[in-house]
Here is the input.
Amino acid sequence: MEPPQCRCEGGNLRRAVGEKRFFDRKPGREQAWTDIIWFYDYRTNVHHTLKQNPLTRTDLEEFVTCFNPANRHERTPTWSETTPEGRWWPYAYAEIMARDKVNLDIFWLRDESLEGSDNLPDPDLIAVEIVEDLEAALEQFRLIAEDLIP
Here is the structure.
């Protein structure tokens, strides 16, 4: 089976989902520690807000199931030609390294909001999300400023 088309977008995750972070405690070496990197696209066609539609643990059940921490060697992708809405897909390490600036901002799902104005969220929802994003950013700047004051 051919992997889904790898599309990229600027590195901004929705604040409700959180930041992309990768922590690796293994020491560096010439040969990569892995050949496959699994991705779960929870950005495309998912809309959360802090107040009206907050992210909950149940929203992440599919990811936890796909991640399969009990046996990572039995992971299976949910995307296929027959299930084009599948959010879980592996990419080869070599493919990731060949990307411009080794960018991990990967998505393959069709973003319904980009297909026409009929699919855009209601303006009041967009406004609420913008206000929440700005308030969260302002709060983060306040915390940074407090840390800088001796």
Remarks:
- The chain is about 25% helix and 10% strand.
- The beta strands are 7-8, 36-40, 88-92, 106-107.
- Helices lie at 61-67, 93-97, 123-148.
